[in-house]
Design goal:
By secondary structure, this protein is mainly alpha-helical. It folds into two domains: 1-50, no CATH class; 52-165, Arc Repressor Mutant, subunit A (Orthogonal Bundle), CATH 1.10.10. The chain has helices at 7-18, 26-50, 55-66, 75-82, 86-98, 120-140, 146-162; strands at 72-73, 102-106, 114-118. It has a three-stranded antiparallel β-sheet with strand order 1-3-2. Helix 2 packs antiparallel against helix 6 (120-140). It is elongated. The chain starts with 6 loop residues before the first helix and ends with a helix.
Length: 165
């Protein structure tokens, strides 16, 4: 029976043997979710790399793209939309600007503010990268039925809301 268990199942079985007074069942969810998330990140990053992008650059370009024309945000809005610190956004934007994928300019309403905008090259790049990204995500969830995907998405949303994320 132990050979039928996955990695997390084997760990849980060991804990049941060693500490029968404790219920390791949360590991069945959290341990597997952690392992799946790590594997998914590897799979996603591989696609970004084909376009010369890291996770951070992809995140910045995709965030600007999904805002719609004129594809621009303040660094603060980028930080809020990507859920990283303003310092992390600055580093990501710097890398994108070095490649000519975004520009920075002074805000029109406030000379102290800055605006980050996609360049035509950045728009072309993220459109191509996002198409590949979506194909990859469809592949990654392809073993689940539509109903399983909908249920899993709902469960994760419910759980995430309860955790405040």
């Amino acid at each position: 029976m132990a050979s039928d268990l996955d990695h997390v199942g084997r760990i849980m079985a060991q804990w049941r043997d060693q500490r029968p007074d404790l219920d390791p069942s949360p590991q069945g969810v959290i341990g597997r979710l952690h392992r799946v998330a790590a594997r998914l990140t590897e799979e996603l990053v591989e696609v970004y790399a084909r376009f010369g992008l890291g996770e951070g650059e992809f995140d910045v370009l995709a965030t600007l793209r999904r805002t719609g024309a004129p594809y621009e945000l303040t660094p603060g809005d980028l930080a809020a939309s990507t859920m990283v610190s303003s310092g992390a956004v600055t580093k990501r934007v710097d890398r994108c600007a070095e490649h000519g994928w975004v520009t920075r300019r002074v805000g029109e309403a406030d000379a102290r503010s800055r605006v980050v905008a996609l360049t035509p090259a950045g728009l072309d790049l993220i459109d191509r990268a996002f198409e590949a990204h979506m194909a990859n995500e469809h592949r990654l969830v392809g073993t689940l039925t539509e109903l399983e995907r909908a249920r899993l998405a709902h469960l994760l949303e419910t759980w995430g809301r309860s955790l405040g994320i």
